Amino acid sequence: MKRIVIFASGSGSNAENIIKYFQNSEEIVVTHVLSNNEQAKVFDRCERLNIDASLFDKDSFIHDDTVLNFLQVEADVIVLAGFLWKIPAKIVNAFPNKIINIHPALLPKYGGKGMYGMNVHKAVKENNEAETGITIHYVNENYDEGAIIFQAKTSVSSSDTPETIAQKVHELEYEHFPKVIEEVILQHE
Ligand code: GAR
Prior knowledge:
The protein is α/β, with parallel strands linked by helices. It contains seven helices and seven strands.
């Protein structure tokens, strides 16, 4: 069994979708969700889905090795599903090509610090983009710059709002993210 630990900072709808996708898998299991946000709705989802979830702070993530040590014991693969802190170098180096992020745009466009969630969709709308999409990529030390694994596109029309763009992007995320995670893990076998 390959064990996934998911990091999530907010609602956690992707985390829930991934947990459900692997619920009956004989090869891959989501063992734990970690969050930096006490208020995150992902905690309610984990309670409902009966998945262990823990809160951590900057000290245990960056300044000492609590989170790193936990991951080294508990995780084969780390999935970032709406996680908003940068991953420190010591964790990136301990998990080369084993940390997978989803970004709600077609990188390298609309990436970098501050570009997350609705900020991305508002910028796409303001720039009158004809298309947007999702990017699934490995994580390195810089925001949104690791090697791209998969992208999928959706069209944006003049009647779209940031909210409808978000909805279209979420649909792509739900459809593709678990499958791409599965492919990456099984390919590495
Ligand atoms: C998702 O759209 C994800 O792509 C995005 O946050 C949303 C989280 O939604 N991630 C980023 O913006 C990372 N830079 P969720 O909590 O409902 O899964």
